[in-house]
């Protein structure tokens, strides 16, 4: 016998999941393990749905062979049915959205997803399998999602919950029904209880988290009291609230939290409770209300996580200077690394601090050759890794500190600036303001928000597991691991990008080798650059140590040194590419956005990080256009002005050909090439590719035509590779005289073989176009067959004659694949002697077949005998 069940005090998510599960277990009985919330009981009485729910007392537990648990996996929450899960002979299937704990049942089949409601999981399964749903079933599933996610407003809500709700609406879910049960009016009994809870509440501050505990007693059982927790939380802005209500012989505990520091599921775990970090409940027996209250307070002091410490907000590693270095060296170091304060070291210990202001004044007075130690501040305040953020705030304000070294055993391990502190304080303030105003986290750019749900929904599960493993391996080595680059940007945009880049605060190569050893996969390392490539069976991805860089001259390649994640992100091109995601187990999915990347994604803006960015790396101008055209973003006014300045001072002439070539190819591959080339012309950048390049009508035509040709070709021959970048480069070259073509390709440092292919391709395309006029099919074949696929497509794109385009199309779709049936062996069997004549005969047969003069083997044999008669002696 199959039984589908859920947790005690069943809510709408539990009921809806039971009903959905029955679609996959049609012979199973629906059985509640105990009571249901009042709203659920009301629904069962009035909905008119025929659910045929059995009472537990009518079921012989020994007859159960398979138990299907929905919205629960903790045996303490399923009443007498827990006897079933301890019986090894029984099959257990689990569908749940709550995080796993040690006490949970291990199922033979488990579907456990990090979404806001188990109803979401079933909705996704039903949608995937195209299972039919009645409007009543859709409404019930919608009730489950709305109740569990607070009408899609609780922090536990994920994008998958929203998509599931949208799907249910399409399937006929009635929001009036949802509203009737989710937003029901409080009865007199509940109002009286609410009043008592408000007046009995006590506030506690534990590790800077404000927690409210309210208590009340009732002689008789009252149904669902969880809405009262939300009402009290709305009245008083606290981080977490615990409702303790004594009813009959038990204490019911309802907990709600909007703080990462207060995980109510973890706190109620020892009371036998369940749920998730933001919402949990428990039923406690054999303890008085006062005993539960005291036990809860003890638990809170043990389990509420402390707020941030210096370790959480500091920058590490820190650029330092030796005490014996000169003031001039200090000035050069500050300029190279864009810092305003340098810790001064003596024998690896912190000796003092020196600021840019002091250095500049010392230089002004002629002390450039004096030692740093003569001018640095030696009376320095510092903090440890475990200093709380409140103490740091106090020190910075009261002592007017703008730079606090983080020191362990006299060694500097990090530093905190005012910006670091303000960012952390702003993050906390923003989080509280959002909760107070019920804003969704995506409404404004956010610092430190979690995007783990986006990672899970956009990445395959194997890659999510790999990222989690990266976090664990880095932690075990004492490092921090981050996901960076375009994949993070595209996650924020709601897109999937599996170009994975990992940055390690620490030794990236040591991390890669440890990861490779753990996975049993190959690792290629590059010690000079501090980078490695990890090659798994599902993915090849790059690993790098967090680095900073400086440029010794404009347009030169940068010099790179190990640094912090913040400095690593600062060296990137645009704000939208400067975000990172923490991968360590305690903060998996936390977004780092130091430079306003989310803001610029929302405002659809390409913005440079600092004013010398194009001076240091002019290729960023090409990248600005590439990203602008690829995403449909505008380039900020200031960024455009900086590009124009770089053009005016001819910086691009110093740029290596290879780097410009790489950027041009990416520009042609990732954007609309015509729009991109027009943008290059607008910003006067074409002249740096070649002075004679201009936008002409013919260039515009061939760019449009190449785009159409590629689209057509990919549709028909999607497995056949073509070099798109080179096709558009050929279009540029075609506008120039022969000598200028070679000059342009040499300027771009194009590899010699590719250079020859393009120049010869242009010449051969011109020759082919001159021949393709009113020709037989065999002539089309003979004209295009010697050309590589890239040149054939260029012929098609360049032609303005519809008939010629048809010729190329016919060749690609049909003629190029025609082969004669006869072979040399057949000719030998027919009596012909091997020799050059074989090639002549087979070529003639091929042309006849292409021209449709022969259709089959017999035709070919007749053709050969007629045109190449055997000479008999």
Alpha-beta content class: alpha/beta
Number of strand segments: 28
Mean pLDDT: 87
From the alpha carbons, calculate the radius of gyration and give it in angstroms: 36 Å
Strand arrangement in the largest pleated sheet: 20-21-22-19-18-25-26
What is the helical fraction, as a range of percent? Answer: 40-55%
Number of helices: 38
Largest sheet report: 7 strands, mixed
Give the termini separation.
92 Å
Beta strand %: 15-25%
What overall geometry do the principal axes of the alpha carbons give? flat
- Low-pLDDT runs: 433-447
Write the layout of secondary structure elements.
Blueprint: E1 2-5, H1 12-22, E2 29-31, H2 38-46, E3 53-54, E4 66-70, H3 82-85, E5 91-96, E6 109-112, H4 118-128, H5 135-148, H6 159-170, H7 175-182, H8 188-200, E7 202-206, E8 209-218, H9 226-235, E9 240-247, E10 250-257, H10 264-268, E11 274-275, E12 279-285, H11 289-303, H12 310-313, E13 321-322, H13 327-337, E14 341-346, E15 349-355, H14 356-364, H15 389-398, E16 403-408, E17 411-417, H16 418-437, H17 452-458, H18 461-476, E18 480-484, H19 486-492, E19 501-505, H20 508-519, E20 522-526, E21 531-535, E22 540-545, E23 547-550, E24 559-562, H21 565-570, E25 580-582, E26 591-592, H22 597-602, E27 605-606, H23 613-616, H24 619-631, E28 634-635, H25 637-648, H26 657-670, H27 673-682, H28 686-689, H29 697-716, H30 724-734, H31 738-747, H32 752-771, H33 777-784, H34 789-798, H35 802-813, H36 824-829, H37 836-850, H38 857-867
Parallel strand pairs: 1-2, 1-4, 2-3, 4-5, 5-6, 8-9, 13-14, 19-22, 27-28
Antiparallel strand pairs: 7-8, 9-10, 10-12, 11-12, 14-15, 16-17, 18-19, 18-25, 20-21, 21-22, 23-24, 25-26
Helix pairs in contact: 1-4, 1-5, 4-5, 4-6, 5-6, 5-7, 13-14, 24-26, 24-27, 26-30, 29-30, 29-34, 30-32, 30-34, 32-34, 33-37, 34-35
């Amino acid at each position: 016998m199959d039984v589908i069940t859920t947790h005690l005090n069943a809510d709408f998510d539990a009921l809806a999941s039971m009903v959905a599960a029955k679609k996959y277990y049609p012979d199973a009985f629906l059985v509640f393990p105990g009571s249901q919330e009042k709203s659920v009981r009301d629904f069962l009485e009035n909905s008119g749905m025929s659910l045929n729910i059995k009472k537990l007392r009518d079921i012989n537990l020994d007859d159960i062979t398979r138990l299907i648990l929905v919205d629960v996996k903790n045996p303490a929450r399923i009443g007498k049915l827990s006897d079933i899960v301890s019986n090894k002979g029984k099959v257990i299937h689990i569908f749940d959205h709550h995080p796993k704990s040690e006490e949970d049942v291990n199922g033979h089949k488990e579907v456990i997803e990090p979404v806001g409601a188990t109803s979401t999981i079933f909705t996704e399964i039903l949608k995937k399998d195209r299972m039919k749903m009645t409007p009543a079933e859709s409404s019930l599933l919608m009730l489950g999602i709305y109740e569990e996610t607070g009408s899609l407003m609780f922090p536990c809500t994920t994008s998958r919950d929203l998509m599931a709700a949208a799907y249910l609406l399409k399937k006929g879910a009635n929001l009036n029904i949802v509203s009737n049960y989710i937003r029901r009016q409080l009865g007199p009994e509940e109002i009286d209880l609410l009043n008592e809870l408000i007046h009995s509440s006590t506030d506690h501050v534990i590790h800077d988290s404000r927690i409210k505990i309210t208590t009340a007693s009732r002689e008789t059982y009252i149904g669902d009291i969880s809405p009262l927790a939300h009402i009290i939380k709305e009245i008083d802005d606290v981080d977490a609230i615990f409702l303790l209500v004594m009813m009959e012989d038990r204490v019911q505990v309802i907990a709600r939290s909007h703080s990462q520091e207060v995980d109510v599921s973890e706190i109620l775990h020892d009371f036998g409770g369940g749920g998730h970090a933001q919402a949990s409940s428990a039923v406690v027996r054999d303890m008085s209300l006062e005993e539960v209250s005291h036990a809860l307070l003890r638990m809170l002091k043990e389990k509420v996580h402390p707020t941030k410490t210096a370790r959480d907000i500091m920058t590490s590693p820190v650029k330092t200077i030796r005490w014996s270095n000169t003031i001039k060296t200090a000035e050069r170091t500050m300029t190279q690394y864009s810092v305003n304060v340098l810790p001064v070291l003596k024998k690896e210990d912190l000796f003092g601090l020196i600021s840019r202001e002091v250095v500049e004044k010392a230089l002004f007075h002629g002390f450039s050759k004096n030692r740093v130690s003569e001018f640095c501040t030696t009376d320095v305040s510092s903090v440890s890794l475990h200093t709380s953020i409140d103490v740091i705030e106090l020190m910075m304000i009261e002592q007017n500190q703008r730079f606090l070294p983080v020191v362990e055993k006299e060694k500097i391990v990090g530093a905190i600036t005012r910006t670091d502190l303000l960012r952390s304080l702003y993050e906390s303030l923003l989080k509280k303001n959002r909760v107070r105003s019920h804003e969704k986290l995506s409404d404004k750019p956010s610092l430190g928000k979690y995007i783990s749900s986006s990672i899970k929904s956009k990445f395959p599960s194997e890659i999510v597991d790999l990222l989690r493993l990266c976090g664990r391996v880095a932690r075990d080595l004492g490092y921090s691991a981050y996901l960076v680059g375009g994949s993070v940007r595209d996650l924020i945009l709601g897109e999937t990008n599996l170009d994975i880049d990992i940055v390690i605060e620490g030794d990236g190569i040591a991390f890669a080798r440890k990861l490779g050893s753990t996975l049993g996969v190959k690792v290629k390392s590059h010690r000079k650059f501090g980078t490695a490539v990890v090659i798994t069976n599902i993915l090849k991805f790059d690993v790098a140590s967090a680095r900073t860089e400086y440029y010794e001259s404009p347009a030169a390649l940068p010099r790179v040194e190990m640094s912090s994640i913040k400095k690593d992100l600062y060296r990137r091109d645009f704000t939208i590419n400067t975000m990172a995601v923490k991968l360590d187990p305690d903060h998996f999915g936390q977004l780092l956005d130091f430079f306003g990347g989310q803001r610029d994604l929302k405002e659809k803006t390409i913005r440079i990080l600092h004013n010398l960015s194009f001076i240091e790396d002019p290729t960023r101008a090409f990248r600005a256009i590439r990203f602008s055209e690829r995403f449909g973003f505008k380039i900020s006014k200031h960024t455009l002005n900086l590009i124009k300045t770089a053009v005016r001072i001819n910086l691009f002439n110093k740029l290596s050909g290879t780097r410009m070539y790489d950027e041009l190819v990416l520009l042609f591959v990732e954007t609309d090439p015509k729009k991109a080339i027009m943008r290059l012309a607008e910003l006067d950048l074409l002249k740096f590719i070649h002075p004679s390049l201009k936008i002409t009508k013919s260039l515009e035509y061939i760019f449009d035509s190449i785009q159409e040709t590629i689209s057509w070709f990919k549709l028909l021959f999607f497995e056949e590779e073509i070099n798109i970048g080179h096709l558009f480069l050929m279009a540029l070259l075609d506008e120039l005289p022969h000598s200028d073509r070679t000059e342009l390709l040499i300027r771009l440092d194009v590899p010699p073989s590719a250079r020859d292919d393009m120049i010869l391709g242009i010449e051969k395309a011109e020759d082919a176009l001159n021949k393709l006029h009113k020709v037989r099919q065999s002539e089309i074949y003979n004209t295009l067959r010697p050309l590589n696929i890239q040149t054939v497509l260029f012929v098609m794109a360049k032609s303005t004659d519809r008939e010629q385009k048809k010729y190329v199309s016919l060749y690609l779709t049909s003629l190029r694949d025609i082969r004669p049936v006869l072979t040399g062996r057949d000719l030998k069997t027919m009596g012909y002697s091997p020799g050059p004549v074989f090639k002549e005969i087979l070529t003639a047969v091929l042309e006849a077949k292409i021209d449709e003069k022969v259709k089959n083997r017999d035709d070919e044999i007749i053709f050969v005998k007629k045109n190449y008669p055997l000479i008999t002696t």
